[in-house]
Amino acid sequence: MTVGRAHVVDGRLRALIVNSKNANVATGPAGLEACRETCRLLGTELDIPATDVFPCSTGVIGRPLPMDRIRAGIAGVRAQLAPGGLDVFARAIMTTDTHPKVRCARLGDAVLVGCCKGAGMIEPDMATMLAFFFTDAELPAERLRGALRAAVDLSFNMVSVDTDTSTSDTAVVLANGQAGPVDPDAFGRLLTAMAIELAQEVARDGEGATKLIEVAVQGAPDKDAARRAAKSVVNSPLVKSAVWGADPNWGRVAMAIGKCFDLPLDPDRVRIAFGGTDVYAGADLGPEPLRRLADHLRGDRVRIDVDLGLGAAAATVWGCDLTPEYVHINGDYTT
Description:
Elements: H1 2-8, E1 15-22, H2 28-46, E2 53-60, H3 67-74, H4 77-80, H5 86-92, E3 101-107, E4 110-117, E5 130-135, H6 141-154, E6 170-175, H7 184-204, E7 212-220, H8 223-235, H9 237-244, H10 250-258, E8 271-274, E9 277-278, H11 287-297, E10 301-307, E11 313-320, H12 324-331
Parallel strand pairs: 1-2, 5-6, 7-10
Antiparallel strand pairs: 3-4, 4-5, 7-11, 8-9, 8-10
């Protein structure tokens, strides 16, 4: 992201270029020059400054970019530009994703579209995740930047597939203003809602995943504590494995909460529920509650609620189950 950060300093971008299957990371000075050449080539093709091009790469670490293929791909691209095509773009940037992730919404006369990729090595703030939003709404640059930060904080920063981090974590929003002004607050709400949907898609499409896990923590002393506790649960290999097997082992969740050693937890005040069914110590787990619990855990979306009983702060995060397929995918990723 060295080149990208330098190009976005002035808040002005006119083009994105993304290559998949190669992260262009740990490739030394040659990798930096390859990235700069890519921007120069696209800038020349589109008749814009190279500094108005934002480059992204995602894929295997440590391999040089195949510049011959990139040069050939850029040549003549201006003639190929046409309205639409976001689905094609979203599919082209996939790595181990099983499907493209795209959303579209309207705000008055303006349109907001978004797409992202990500399925493994997902634990922001450094994930193998790319997210792009495009709008024709007219907004002051600072309001647009603030809206993106707020949206990312409640969406992509609240998702985790496997706790592992990488080097391609990027979220960008571009606005050309052609549809005229919109209400900034309404735009911010729309952007946040779209980002949350896309973040959930990343978690649902986690490598080998069969279930989306939603962990909602309330009763925390502050927002950071709520987030840490929720992430501790959704990232626990034992919790993720139990969800995969539809095993109502609430002790795994209690264990994950207990790993947050800085929280002054009182076990008598903690509440844990799966799909609305209380499961913590003293809960009534007779035949009917057990049936509801089993039905919920066998579904493709599992909700875990935790009340810490320590305050008023809350956080919701998303993840996925841990399956044998995750090991298979990553056991031969490059071979």
